[in-house]
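User: My collaborator and I are trying to settle a disagreement about how two of our proteins should look. Neither of us wants to argue from intuition anymore, so we agreed to look at predicted structures for both before our next call. Could you fold the first one, then the second, and keep them clearly separated?

Assistant: That sounds like a sensible way to settle it. I'll keep them separate. The first protein:
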Amino acid sequence: MKVAALILAAGGGSRLGRPKAEVVLGGRRLVDLAIESCVRAGLSPVVVVLGAAWVIPMPLADSPDGDAPEVWLVENTEWSTGLSSSLRAGLAALETDAGIEAAVITLVDTLSVGDGHLSRVSSLLRDGATAAVATYRGETRTPVGLAREVWSDVARTVVGDEGARRWLRAHPEMVTEVECADLGPWIDIDTAEDLPGLS
């Protein structure tokens, strides 16, 4: 089963003062760290939605199966309208490849989400889940997995600065949860104070 990754990285980072895709931590950009986690989780292609800043990812080592990682860059010209426009742009790009059966969605500013989280969500999709979501002590967060059959419905549903949350709440019978708190807390980066060493 071909499961893609979708990294939402188009935002301007208004509270941070710069686009999060450009942020460097420990000598590496957040966008490159996110791509690397997706590749390690065996997700392909890795689709990165950019907007406020256009960044070219650093070259990556081969994926676990020995192939060169396939990374698509998608421009969201409506990034200022919120996260929903990035999700729509990413899902539209994925629709162009009929071989992709599902996607795992993650955010560029959730450095705490690694390949372990992504693998757990993708495993649920491979096992037949229509939608899969990571939880942290029962609280739903990212990553979120969606089977191809619901992409168009999700794209029609999302609004403003939220992702698939509204659709997930409207269709609880389709959602399979996987606890990820044992992998560490869910942390997103909104301000420079959120993570020491941010540059």
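The second protein, kept apart from the first:
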Amino acid sequence: MAAIAAQQEAMKKLDWMNGKWRGPAVSQSPQGEHKVTQTERIGGFLDGSLKVIEGKGYNADGSTGFHAFGVVTYDPATKTYWMTSSAQGRSGKFQLTPSDNGYKWEIPAGPATIRYTATLADGTWTEVGDYVAAGQPPRRFFTMTLTRVGDTDWPEAGSMTKD
């Protein structure tokens, strides 16, 4: 039980994320710029010992332009946070580093790194993605700016009962 208590305590650093969020997001790719209205719904699970995240971006016509699922956990043995992410046909487990007002996580990308940095300031969650290659300045390819629009009881609500 000590491990669960340690997880619950560690996850409190990310409690600011809980709820429903919405705002503009823009990504750059070789195909050009892609704008969506990004939504995030985030809640604690297993008595607050981890965070469950669904990110969904809507195109201007209402269709889904992006859809991702993530779980943030904390390993008390190594004192390490992990982001397990699935999006756009890819998935992986990546170290996440909380800060006083956000977090950072990175994805290896061959000789480079994809670095996501999130900050919360004045009720606005801003997250950027940068492509970082040795000897080159970081190239920004993603920006989202979200405002909290409500609470959510997801994913705890609606679970199965024994009957």
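Some points you might bring to the call about the second protein. Residues 2-11 form the longest helix (10 residues). The helical segments are 2-11.
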